[in-house]
Design a protein that fits this description.
Length: 635
């Protein structure tokens, strides 16, 4: 790794732009630099979806490091929020790495652990409400049941209530998810308790506490006059909300530093316990009724928030322009040019590398290639931006195990963040970035990388289509919306195939019609109608792995033809199309789905020497399928 001979620490996490992740990683990098370690941060961007192909593609980033040259791993387990991804990450540790692994903030029996003293923080907070504010009816919003820190904090609340002889039961305990969207459910649960409306709600983290405060305000309650609310973690939002949130300060920087020290102790054969604890400290503010001492900080925070909103708006606009520019790219050099023009939106980056998989060593250096699993032995650095200004856009081939081209690595400790370039399960490479002193990943960086990934996938498919056109001697015209053949191209190709294969090979002809196209246009506009058509076109192209030729022959009408076909291939094709559409429908934020009716025929007896005859059979079967589907919905 990094080709400079230093020892290497790899950090596994999700959503590096988050406040906790940013803070702990900055302390990891500072501590590692002081001890002369390189750091590679593998950032798995959470898609908030369970689409397996996406998860598989994104998880390729775990296979990037050369584990033989990794000396220690730091694992931010509780940032992943998805069991399948956690398992994938841990499988890589156990299978490929025999050195020290440190889990931060989340106890894992197989690894070293750096944990907070969660119990003392909740105990101090609950005692503060009892002794200093004389409250008795205290409810508790816990975290996920399966997380040990959530169980420890809940037990501390229960032990403290028992110590002071205060009444509570399950009606005063709600199990949340450590996120922002269950405040209303928690209040419904507490307000239905036979103990009555609580005087205070102690929350296991700040995100849940802030959601409870907002829900209370929406319901007409005042915090803290009517109900006291407290949190845990001391995130920046806790200081900036009104009233500012009483919470428990998490020594995040100390945790990151300690994780590096644990690795260094193990590697140097110094005594090291399996579990290290760092202390928490309560911070009393306005939400519990204590004097609010953070007014200046809150004002500064609000000014920052307003500035951040303006910056976000500007960046979102830049991302849209970048997406449009990438849509017009047709090779790797053009992608690099667009990325170079728009990387400015990531304000604090220092160096940036766009590294592409190199599946075929003999391939043109300006082409895009993809693989399904892992990374190729060699990568092609299509773009290197050094010190925010000096740009190298010539193709440079290097050993992927070195992570970035060796010519850009010196003897000092290196720190880079890596993210995968993938579209669903298709892996196109990865990007590497590091930041100026005090800088870090901005929230839009993940969208920036996703735009690059989509462009690479689009280019790959364009090249695939161009090759097909070339093989067919460019006889066909394509539909500009879907990049499939249009009616003219389909008729020319299908009739020629029919004549060539007559009485020699089985031909498959299929008719596909999109359902409810008018409803999509009427309710969501014709632009969304175009999106729906494009999705179906991509679904057909994605399923075309056995020589199928697809065409958009009308507004929402598609035809497919293939030679040397079987019933099994026909069913496999339909299954793949429906699976692609299901994945889109499951992730589509708008209230419409892309569904189809279809019918087809396998021509093997050639009873009529007229291709149109078989097309009519295919059409009729499609309409029969559409009618059956409609009748099924009505029943």
């Amino acid at each position: 790794m990094y080709s400079n001979g230093l020892k290497n620490i790899v950090v596994f996490l999700t959503e590096l732009h988050g406040e906790y992740q940013h803070t702990v990683c900055r302390s990891i990098c500072d501590a590692a630099k002081a001890l002369n370690y390189n750091v590679a941060i593998l950032n798995w961007d959470h898609p908030f979806t369970n689409i397996k192909k996406y998860v598989d593609g994104a998880s390729n980033i775990f296979e990037l490091p050369d584990y033989e040259n990794v000396d220690g791993i730091i694992y931010l387990k509780d940032t992943f929020m998805q069991d399948e991804v956690e398992h994938k990450a841990e499988e890589h540790f156990k299978k490929n790495f025999k050195g020290p692994v440190v889990s931060v903030r989340c106890r894992t029996d197989d690894f070293y652990n750096v944990l907070t003293d969660d119990a003392s923080g909740i105990t101090a907070m609950t005692e503060h409400l009892i002794r200093d504010h004389h409250l008795k009816k205290i409810a508790y919003m816990s975290g996920k049941r399966e997380l040990e820190d959530a169980r420890i904090r809940l037990k501390a609340y229960c032990d403290t209530m028992d110590k002071y002889g205060l009444e509570y039961d399950e009606s005063y305990i709600f199990h949340g998810d450590y996120w922002k969207h269950k405040g209303g459910e928690a209040l419904d649960h507490f307000f239905a308790s036979h103990y009555g409306i609580p005087e205070a709600i102690v929350c296991a983290n700040d995100y849940m506490a802030i959601s409870v405060m907002r829900e209370l305000v929406d319901r007409g309650y005042k915090v803290p006059d009517d109900i006291v609310v407290t949190g845990f973690d001391n995130i920046s939002d806790a200081r900036e909300c009104i009233p500012s949130l009483t919470t428990v300060n998490m020594p995040v920087s100390a945790m990151g530093k300690r994780a590096v020290e644990v690795i260094d102790n193990v590697l140097n054969n110094r005594e090291q316990e399996k579990i290290s604890y760092v202390l928490t400290e309560p911070v009393f503010r306005g939400s519990c009724g204590c004097p609010d001492t953070d007014l200046i900080a809150r004002l500064m925070g609000r000014n920052r928030s307003e500035s951040d909103k303006q910056k976000m708006s500007s960046n979102m606009r830049a991302l849209r322009y970048m997406s449009v520019a990438l849509e017009g790219a047709f090779d790797l050099k053009q992608v690099s040019h667009v990325v170079d023009n728009y990387i400015y939106m990531n304000e604090t980056y220092k160096n940036f590398f766009l590294n592409i998989t190199r599946k075929d060593p003999t391939a043109d250096l300006n082409t895009v290639s993809k693989i399904k699993n892992g990374y190729t032995d060699e990568s092609l650095c299509a773009l290197a931006i050094i010190d925010r200004g000096h740009t190298e856009d010539y193709p440079l081939i290097f050993n992927t195990k070195e992570l970035i081209p060796p010519m850009y690595v010196d003897e000092s400790p290196q720190t880079y963040c890596f993210m995968p370039l993938h579209f669903l399960e298709n892996n196109y490479g990865y990007v590497a970035v590091n930041y100026m002193e005090g800088g870090g990943m901005e929230v839009q960086y993940a969208s920036f990388v996703t735009s690059i990934s989509s462009s690479l996938d689009n280019i790959y498919n364009k090249v695939k289509l161009r090759k097909a056109l070339s093989e067919l001697e460019k006889l066909y015209v394509t539909d500009p919306l879907t990049n499939l053949f249009n009616r003219r191209g389909f008729e020319k190709y299908a009739n020629k195939m029919f004549d060539r294969c007559r009485k020699k090979k089985t031909i498959m002809v299929m008719t596909i019609d999109m359902d409810d196209m008018k409803r999509i246009n009427d309710n969501f506009g014709h632009m969304q109608g175009d999106v729906a058509i494009q999705i179906l076109g991509k679904a057909l192209l994605n399923a075309s792995v056995n020589g199928e030729v697809c065409a958009r022959v009308g507004g929402d009408e598609f035809n497919v033809v293939a030679e040397d076909y079987t019933q099994e291939l026909y069913e496999e094709f339909i299954e793949n199309v429906l699976e692609y559409l299901k994945q889109f429908n499951d992730s589509n934020a708008l209230d419409y789905s892309v569904n189809i009716s279809y019918g087809g025929v396998l021509i093997d007896k050639y009873e009529v020497n007229n291709f149109e005859y078989y097309m009519n059979i295919s059409d009729n079967r499609m309409y029969e399928h559409k009618s059956a589907r409609k009748a099924g919905r009505q029943n």
